[in-house]
Amino acid sequence: MRLGGLEKNSFVIIGRAGIDFFTEAGVKVEEAESMTVDLGGSAANTAVGLCKLGSKAALVTRVSDDAVGRYCINRLKHYGVDPRHVTPVGGEYRNSLAVYESVMDGHRNVIYRNGAADFQMEVADVEAVDYAAYGALITAGTVFASEPSRSAAFRAIDLARGAGLPIIFDVDYRPYSWPSAEVASDVLSRAAALSDVIVGNDEEFGFVAGAYDKGLTKAQALADAGAAIVIYKMGAEGAMTFSEGKTLRTGIYAVDALKPVGAGDSFMAGFLSGLASGQSVQDAVLRGSACASITVSSPGCAPALPDTAELDDFLRGHPGPSLT
Predict the structure, then answer these.
(1) Which of 8, 53, 69, 307 is the right S-S partner for 63, CB 3.0 to 4.6 Å?
(2) What is the Cα–Cα distance from 141 to 158, expressed in whole angstroms?
């Protein structure tokens, strides 16, 4: 299994940092009289989640050279994420913005990505990283959606592999970021083929495979082709994990969810920190599932991600995972 280095418990993450506005519990956006602001963006959230659980994480991205970009850098520092490779970019480029509700029924999440600063990440940005200082590289599908970010991300994979780091890939398909579904399918398939750990939900694997009903077969094929771990998430139905020729089925930790966002980022943080601490693949997947359940139970993403004490308390008080 090509996962040597994970025991360093130190991750370099290629992706975006954005800004989130979210409502109080149960409040729709059009009825809100106030909102809370905090750090957002899937890569930044994963980095925050790892740091809260005792891992080290550094983010590589571009932010807008304005007050919002500086806010994102300050929040990364607040949560313990190393921002040395977060580079401001001027002109009309802007940080991504998400406005969402702390509501499950009819939940709405509005994303603003016009002129996204993170898509301006260049090859020089990733070549400035000392990959040997880390234990693994994490990247997500969104970073491949546009140039020059796409070429930079593939260059980062090459450099990380050259340094002996395992590549962790979150499929994270967001249709609004891509020029076409055909381009997305091709590029995401190329990224997956270069990765050692691949995580995605049933819809994302189905998209990469070309049809929803072929997603599980695609996940299995990626494992057969050499990926050390492939995790096929199925929402309330748990997950199927392919590793070392075995198929593991795990359930979820049932909670009264407040909103659906943040679960995937929290799962990744919990799963990877578990692997880095020496847990088995199955235990690490369950740890990720517990983190996801905690996160969807509170408003926001970054502030809702659990720290180690919160995770331990949750696991002690919960009856355990169940399969639907």
Answers:
(1) 69
(2) 16
The 3-state DSSP class for residue 200 equals strand
Q: What is the pTM of this model?
A: 0.97
Q: Are 256 and 216 in contact (CB under 8 A)?
A: no
Tell the CATH topology of 6-317.
Answer: UDP-N-acetylmuramoyl-L-alanine:D-glutamate ligase (3.40.1190)
The answer to whether the beta carbons of residues 11 and 48 sit under 8 Å apart is no
Write down the domain spans for the chain: 6-317
Mean pLDDT over 57-64 rounds to 98
For residues 255 and 210, give the distance between their C-alpha atoms in angstroms, rounded to a whole number.
Answer: 33
Whether the CB-CB separation of 72 and 66 falls below 8 Å is answered with no
Any residues with CB less than 8 A from the CB of 161 and at least 6 apart, and which?
167, 194
Structure tokens at 19: 């800004």
Cα 224 to Cα 222: distance, rounded to the nearest angstrom: 5
210 compared with 299, residue with greater pLDDT: 299
